[in-house]
Amino acid sequence: MINKRYDNFQTDNFGNPDNTKRDRDDAKLGATFYWRIMPKTQLLFQAVQTKYDYKQGSFIGVGGVANWTTLDSTDRKYLVGVTWEAAAKTTGIFKIGSMKKDFSESALRDYSGTSWEGTVKWSPLTYSNFDFFTGRGPGESTIGTSSIDRRYGVAWNHAWSSRLSSVASYNNTKAEYQDSTPTQTDTTDAVGLKLNYQWTRNVKIGVGYDRTDKTSNVATSEYKRNIYSIFLNAAI
To answer: d(Cα 227, Cα 45) in Å, to the nearest integer?
Structure first.
């Protein structure tokens, strides 16, 4: 169970619920069955259900008219896939199947479609590896009823020495909002770079840079963000 609550910007300039309409409880239940077909290869069958309970309503376009309604819904995903280890220096998991979102409010349009999740680690060298991932599935949003998100990304992890390592990453997410007024599609590109230095056995220091560039057919949703960070991790 996940409980999400916002403490700031609870109302807009007109006194209407703003961030409070994002408050919700998520209840997730699922099961995965694995079937080994080779020493390092397994097939899998997975079923996952997530129930979203919103604490406030939202203005949603229904029949071309914005109405105050609840976004409570239930997501169901049924996936089949395969996992493998150390095949040609790769390990990974890939799942594909169907997804379905059912809204509690009968006036809102339910939908179904294809969903997938995949992660592959390629290790061409003992000190260098690449993580690739992709996914497609429903996302929660108060823009329209929800979104269909497609995600792709890669991260390069490299050890330059026994003490110095780096992580460079790129992520792309395309969100298509359902029943939004106007129809909205956002694309987010994010790049990151992090340098880590193992100062002592229990202390790691580092610096990082992250850039996010969000474009949209709705201009007010676009933004660019740059984050610079310095961090210290210590273990006792």
So the answer is: 40
Which residues face 130 on adjacent strands?
Answer: 122, 156
User: Which residues share a beta bridge with 159?
Assistant: 165
Give me the pLDDT at residue 229, please.
Answer: 97
Per DSSP, 143 falls in state S
Total count of residues recorded for the chain: 236
Which one-letter amino acid corresponds to residue 98? S
Write the CA distances from 20 to 33, 59, 184, integer angstroms. Answer: 38, 13, 22
94-103, 174-183, 223-232: least confidently modelled range = 174-183
Q: Can you tell me the distance from the alpha carbon of 43 to that of 32, in angstroms, rounded to the nearest whole number?
A: 10
- For residue 98, the tally of other CB atoms under 10 A from its CB is 12
Q: At residue 104, what are phi and psi to the nearest 5 degrees? A: -70, -35
Residues 24-77 have pLDDT tens digits of: 888 999 999 999 999 899 999 999 999 998 877 665 555 554 565 778 889 999
Closest among 92, 187, 81 to 130, alpha carbons compared = 92
Q: Which residue has tokens 């029949």?
A: 63
Sort 145 into a burial class: Cβ within 10 Å, 0-12 / 13-18 / 19+: buried
> What is d(CA 87, CA 135) in angstroms, rounded to the nearest whole number?
22
CA gap 141, 21 in Å, rounded: 10
User: Measured at the alpha carbon of residue 141, what is the angle toward residues 22 and 13, in degrees to the nearest 5?
Assistant: 50
Beta strands 128-139 and 146-159 are: antiparallel
Q: Which of 231, 144, 147, 234 is nearest to 194 (CA)?
A: 231
